[in-house]
Amino acid sequence: MSDRRTFLQKAFGFGAGLFAAPKLFADSQNGNSSRIRSAHPGPAFNMPVVTTDIGDMPHTMDGNTKVFHLTAEVVKQQISPLKTIDAWGFNGSAPGPTIQVSQGDHVRVIFDNHLPESTSMHWHGFEVPNSMDGMPGVSQEPVKPGGRFVYEFNIHQEGTYFYHSHMAMQEMAGMLGAFIMHPKDPYRPHCDKDFLIHLQEYAVLPSNTVPNTMNMEFNWLVFNGKAGPATTPLIVRLGDRVRIRFVNLGMDHHPMHVHGHTFYTTGTEGGRIPEPAWWPGNTVLVGVAQARDVEFVANNPGDWMIHCHLPHHMMNQMSSNAGKMTRTAGLPTGGDMNTGMGMLKGTPGAPMGEDYGPTLGRGLGGVGNASDTPSTNGPLSAKKAMDAMPDMKHDMGNMQMGQVGQNDIAKNANDVPNFPQDAYMEGSMMTMDEAVERPENYGLNPGWSGFMQGMMTFVRVLSPEKYDEVIARMKQAKRPNDPYSSILERA
Ligand SMILES: [Cu+2]
Fold first, then answer.
1. Other CB atoms closer than 10 Å to residue 142's CB: what's the count?
2. What confidence tens digit (pLDDT) does each residue in 96-119 have?
3. 3-state SS of the chain: helix, strand, coil percent to 5?
4. How many H helices and E strands in the chain?
5. Which residues of 83-118 are buried (b: 16+ CB within 10 A; e: fewer)?
6. 3-state class of 153 per DSSP?
7. How far apart are the CA of 227 and the centre of ligand 1, in A?
8. How far is the CA of 289 from the centre of ligand 1 (A)?
9. What's the CA-to-centroid distance between 32 and ligand 1, angstroms?
10. 437-458 confidence digits (pLDDT tens)
11. What separation in Å is there between the alpha carbon of 258 and the centre of ligand 1?
């Protein structure tokens, strides 16, 4: 802009004052200039994108070619402190690491298949030659187990793109990743922080580690491969202009909601939206196979939720039934979510049948049972269940279960229809601040983690002093391949 202004000034002798008018007009058109401009503006440049909990894929140069090594493999993905699943991903994580290139780059991706079956790599939305599209059996032969395929193409687009296996079930097992094409001309206004959040869902039965890619009842809803409260918050400084790129490669659409701020949707999976066509909101629907970039000035201090607004996507280990039936004395035990998810055998073949009723989706063999937790065929005693989850804070006084503590529930709770709606799901019972401790969580309200599940995280809009303190702690942690490294290097 400044170059152009200088040029125009020279060419036409325009005074600087004339150029202030269009900017004022643009601001008033958008209602509030503080919503549009960062509090600390500088020259526009492309900030590297931070993919929390995932990070970037490194590259090497071969002449003018950016070379990436992408390996499809089975990965252990810890989605929550007590839940590690066997996903299929890339280079050690699911989703795979984010690839970042610039418009005009020439890119080579050396793709190795370490999976037990064939696959290929599709470049979603890329305008590349057909032979590079990664459609197995059509544009190329499938890449066999142990096989390799080299993809090579020019980048002439810009925006938020992604890569994924073109085998549907492989995609649902975690085979996806982000591919950022930074624009040759940096976007304006400049964003001080640029984040990416993958939206994914897994169906993993209790005491299992393998996602059932055919199941439509997803019980683990994750951002960048982590379920709340294990998600890492987005750390920003008060006044920063922030971009968040939501990417959805799953089975459901996700209405992504940000608290405390009004954002503009500035980009899609097809690249940047011209500024006059941006639209304001606080919730943006991110459909399957879509990306949505939103931008806002973080001018409202505090720890603000970012979450999918589908109620079932704000939970972990969801189950089918709730209500009084779970609270009668003498529960038949051992019923599990296999049953609760509708995989009934024998009679009665209905979830509400007496044989199953009280245990459905609740009696997982113990309170808060999870795959990596010792389990029995019968209920664990409260003590055993707690001993098995040492990192969790078990505040008996605050437990929501009427049998244990009374603090959080009314005396007549068991007589109220529909109670409990959220036993096992929410509340301070499952507080695990310490289990998910990390520098980005420093200073959060004690007990915060008990109310974070599924697709939930924060954007923490911190005062300069608090921001500096959290950043200092993040630096101090010296984490290898820190997804935040590009910000920490600048801080
Ligand atoms: Cu959702």
1. 18
2. 999 999 999 999 999 999 999 999
3. 20, 30, 50
4. 8, 21
5. bebbbbbbbebbbbbbbbbebebebbbebbbebeeb
6. strand
7. 12
8. 14
9. 30
10. 999 999 999 989 988 889 999 9
11. 13
